[in-house]
Structure formats: C-alpha cells, structure tokens
Amino acid sequence: MDVAPDIDAVAGESVVVIGGGFGGLSTACYLADAGADVTLLEKNEQLGGRASRLEADGFRFDMGPSWYLMPDVFERFFGHFGREPSDFYELERLDPHYRVFWKDGDRVDVLPDREANKALFEEYEPGAGEAFEAYLEESERTYEIGMEHFVYEDRPRLRDYVDKDVLRYSWGLSLLGKMQGHVESYFDHPKLQQLMQYTLVFLGGSPYNTPALYNLMSHVDYNMGVYYPEGGIGAVVDGIVELGDDLGVEYVTDAEVTAIEGRRGGFAVDTADGERYLSDLVVSDADYAHTEQELLPKHKRQYSEEYWESRTYAPSAFLLYLGVEGDVPNLEHHTLVLPTGWDDHFEQIFDDPSWPDDPAYYLCVPSETDDTVAPEGHSNLFALVPIAAGLEDTPELREEYRELVLDDIAENTGTELRDRIVFEETFCVDDFADRYNSYRGSALGLAHTLRQTSLLRPPHRSNAVDGLYFTGSTTTPGIGVPMCLISGQLTAEELSKTA
C-alpha cells in the first residue's frame, strides 16, 4: 500500500540541509513541498554528492553511481509531487543487463528475458533452472514485504518490531542468516552463487557479512530490470534539482560547512567562506561521522570516536576513468570481471585490508548506449575495483595498480586499452575522504552487516541536539541511490513528528 508521507507539520519552518547527495536532495524536496523554507548547502562545485560528474576533453563520466535499479522507487518519489521520471529524463532498458567474464575464460550475458536466464542457470547445474524460479519467487516476496513494511516504514526502536503485524509480515522471511548460506541452499555451482550475490557490492557487503534478507536484490536485478537514464545518473540528479527548484529550494554550492551551533529554533550553520545561515532546523546529508566529529562540539555528539572506529565499513574503490580511441566491442554497458573464487578479494576488503592481488571488478561503458558521453570515434569507460576503506593511497600505489588493472582487462576481456588512452584520471581512498568527507575514505558508508541493519544503524534524529536530523546512506534504509531517496522521505517524516 502506497501511503503518502505526512510531513505538513514543518510548514513555515526554516531548514538548512547540509549536503547535496541524493539523501539531501530528496529531504529538501519533501520539506519544501510541505511548506518549509529550505536552503541546501553543498561543499563541492556541483550537486549530487557521490553522483558527481567528471567532464573533460569531450568525455562525460558519472563518477559514482552508474546503475539505475528499482525504477518503482523513482516513480514513487516523483509521484509524490505529481510528477514522473519521464518529465525529467528518459529510460532505456539495457540488453543485456550486463556481461560477466570469469577469469577461467568463461563468459555469460544476463538478459532482460527471464526464460533465457533460467535456461542459462540450467546449463551450469541440472535443476538450477527450477531453483532459479523458486529463488526469484522468494526474492519477489521479500522485496514486496520488505519495501512496504521495513523500508518505507522506519522502525527505529526495538518495540517497533514487537508487534503482531510486524511478526505477521516477517513470517518466513530470511532475517537472520547470511547471504552465503542462503544462496548455497539453492545453488551448488559457485558461478551461479556469484550471479546471485554480486549485487551485494551495491550494499557495500560480502556474502559472508550481509543478511540473507537482501536476497531481495535478485528480484531487483532479474525481474525489475537494469536501466540507463539518458544522460546518465547525472541526469537524475538534474531532474531532482529541477524539481526542488520548482518547489522553492535554494541551492548554494561551494559552501563547505565548518560548524553547527545552537538548537531547535535557533541554529547557526557556518561555512568556510565566512557565511552564517540561520534556521529553525538542520538536516545533515554530510557524512554522519564527519558531522558529529567535526561540525559539533564534543558534548553534542551521539557517538564517540571509538564507536566510529569500531564499525564495519563498505569498501572504498580504486577508480580509473578512461577516454579511449575506437570501440571496445567485447565490453557491454555494464561488465563484471570475476575470479572463479572471490573469497580472497573479500578477505582483503573486510578481514585483512590490503590491495587485492586478484581483484573482482566492474567496467562501465556508457558510450555503448549513449553517444553523447564521448567524442565521435571514442569510447568512455571506467574501471572500479572495490578495496578496503582506510588503505594507504599514494601516487606510486595507484600507478602500480593501474598497470595491474589494465593487464587484467586485456587478459580476461580481450580488450587492450593502453595504446588508445587519450584521457585518464584516477579516484581512490584519499579522494573519497577529501571530496566527500567520507570516513576512512569509504565509497558508500556503513556496510549492511547484521549488526548495522535497520534499527541498528544511526538514527535520523539526533538524541543529543534538539532539532538536528540526519539523512543519507548511514541512516535507514541504507546504501544506494533508491535507499537514499527513501531516506529523504523518512527524515522529513521524522522532522514533522517532532516539529
């Protein structure tokens, strides 16, 4: 059941939103629509947060998110304001959804055709086709129940779960197990397990630390489809910014916040250029740890430095943005390159942090779909290797790893890039920390482990500063563009409850 959020109580309040990522942009839209006077302050030169764009020499890159999944979330978001995604951008369903190269020479395409994918699974393991159907049925049920009753409904207290309706809805859902055990109960072949688990990268986890509840991502992948918004994810940012502008949101870029002072009804938010913004309420979409540790005095923090140090963080990333001459015919818009056994890579992210020796990685080639992202006769692509947050990041290490990645691409996809590169830029741990104030340079924030899911994530409302709220990936429902859009709604609802 789609219930419109009730946030009218914020009408007439002035609100400063810190940070222009999807969580901040979403929150700003909901609050402005409800009648609040909203000013959004963004540290960087452009809005979008991690969904920044890099433009140079005729190439345009989405620097962060590049997959458009869960189209229903975007439809619901825009629908709240009487609009729809097509008012701002057009979508193309990708075919194939993505290509997978394994490093033993094997290759598969996952298609927007459920029967074809079922047949693919059956090729690898007798009976896997029927198991695929059963898995997707459970995944769909988990998605439908999980989204309506555990994602769109915030449950920040334990007592919110001790309820007969919650128990009824959650009956039969895989709430406590890990994804590895859950997938193993359906498929024996390790490659099929990988095909069902790769989406955990979008949640910043591994099969060994992510709750089995997130099997719902297979419904997102195989049933709902993978899309490309014309112009890239940056076009989605532009659409939400335009919507906010229509609703009366004031945007200020190049406005790095240095301090938050005051309380409900009397906040002062200071920026590095000497400006001071006064408001009744404050919402931070900046990194949660940065907000508490750097923008607030010690006695107004909910969590200690030791708390943040003890958390499990989603990976950072080594990113290589490349503009190349000619085509890259072996690569699809989305391409995954996987070792046949990826346990060592996950261990080097979560257990023994180090630069991966035999990495699993992702290649994005939007020029396969969109001829506006590269000059004529050229291709636009980036390589993303998940690595541990907090790793040492030096020019020498980046150069060494660049060579490893380019060698690996050539060997395992048959795509030699070196002699054709006309534009190149890297982005890594230190850049995530510097540009986004990301704790330990994580690319995504807190991982979705069992102890960091749902009510165990930091809350939307500060319990130390009256009138201070949080939105974005560290809060519920968590990591990913769709989840951050929903986080904006949940934050706006929380403001209204306590306004």
UniProtKB/TrEMBL annotation:
Keywords: Carotenoid biosynthesis, Oxidoreductase. It comes from the Archaea. This is Phytoene desaturase. Pathway: Carotenoid biosynthesis. It holds the Pfam family Amino_oxidase. The lineage of its organism: Archaea, Methanobacteriati, Methanobacteriota, Stenosarchaea group, Halobacteria. Gene3D superfamilies: FAD/NAD(P)-binding domain. InterPro entries: Amino_oxidase, Carotenoid/retinoid_OxRdtase, FAD/NAD-bd_sf. Residues 23-495 form the Amine oxidase domain.
